[in-house]
Design brief:
InterPro entries: LRR_dom_sf. This is F-box domain-containing protein. This protein is an alpha/beta fold. Among the domains are: 19-86, no CATH class; 90-279, no CATH class. The protein is built from 14 helices and 21 strands. It has a 15-stranded mixed sheet with strand order 3-4-5-6-7-8-9-13-15-16-17-18-19-20-21. A two-stranded antiparallel sheet has the order 1-2. Helix 10 (373-383) packs parallel to helix 11. It is extended, with a radius of gyration of 35 Å.
Amino acid sequence: MHSCTHCGNICPSIYPYTDTQDAEIFDRLRLNIFPSQIDIARLKSDIASLEGEIQDLTSLLDKLWHEKQMRERAKEIRESLLSPIRRVPLEIWAEIFLYAIPEPLPFLDFKGNLISQVDTDITTMESPWLLTHVSSYWRKLAISIPSLWATVSLTPDLTFQQESLVRLQLARSQDFPLHLQLRIEDYDSGDIGKLRTLLFPLFHRCATLELATPSAAIIETVCCHPAGLPSLRTLTIRRVSGAQPDNSKMHNEHVTVFMKSPHLCAVNSDFSLAELSLPLTKLKSLVRVPLATFEQIQDIVNAAPELEHFDFSFAEMGSGLRIPRCEGLPMITHNKLRRLHLSTTPSEILSSLKLPALRRLALEEGGFMNGRMETLLEFLYRSECVLDDLSILHTKDISPLLPAVLEYSSYTLTRLAIVVTWSTAQDIYRLLTMTPESELMPNLQRLSIQDWPDHVPTGMTTFFGSGPNSLSFYEMVWSRGSKLNFVSLFSREVHEMTPDLEPHISRLQQRGITVELFGVNFSTRRRIFP
């Protein structure tokens, strides 16, 4: 043992250990010679001495390890002071936090249908709270950013703890415009009263409202406010199954609370205009709204000069779908409407429309029965629009319909989305693979094909197998790599053939074409939620 020259502590002597007796000991072990009494005493003395040294060295190692850890920690905290990330201003951190928070999760899937659960690891509500548990610095910074706390999701049956957290979140949001999500299904009058008490002071700064409810009467009960919702810009209302209020059968008047929202510019609603009164002057988007007459279309278009996106269907009346007669309608012209979605709509409606600004057209659910393709072509030529985005959904008339549209817009289309049966999808594959790129949609950038199974022959695939003229769909995609940058496939046959598709898809990805299978990016395996 000696005194350390650095710390002054008594440390065991450290020297290279050499066993001078190991050769003799191994010889005796090989010859099976038992030691004499003198050798036994000497061996026991050696063992005791070695055990003492081992104990001293173990203690020294523990001390040295502790000292090493202390010095590493001291080094790390000094290095952290020199880290370039500490030069990032608070304003930049705030922007990073905002980008780290997922977008407010909608109640809708990619078809616009109501969903109850979303496949995600971190919800919008949880994210701000997670940021406060990383460090005291992040906690202080997160609390100081009101926009982080401005998305609030509520149901009437809040527990006391949930209500306390919501109130704390609202306090942290300060006066920032709110995104409110309300889901009201099973409830009692006490729950509704508690929810109204919580919401009443917030309506003046509600910019986005998503509401799922079984009755228009509930909307008026929950959202009724003397000043309405003056800051509201985006409104989404979904009709869900649930308990009806006692006064719902007596509720025949319009819900008028939104008429006091002069800045309302986007509405996505399952409730008809007979149930909701809406200000249309600044409206830019009206989606999914059920209509009863063609006159309502005319009234909306005339009253909404800023309308850019119109998606409607005709409401179901009684035992089936009511398709109003459209003979003798005056021509409807709108110079700003860019997106039109026709669902369960006869083709005759296009004979009364002229939309020169139209860029995106979606046709759904047999809207072109009886093969009235000439009506569609007349509409396109009359509008003189430049169509660059086409969606054809759930229609059996796609074989004559798609060529008719492409006759007008093949050179301008950059996006094509198709949802059809598997057998019909084969016609699409043939059309795309038989026609040279220079003649058919040469500027196509995004292609999405979704089919649902009716009957898929075993082992059949059109993605990388031989197609007409020995050209496969895969080869068609590859040949368009200079322009085409995104392909989405959602089909039974692709699901069954995925292992065989991997090398082909990998080649497409290496060329810069993003491939998405069943809503999942093929490379990152991350679900893309529209």
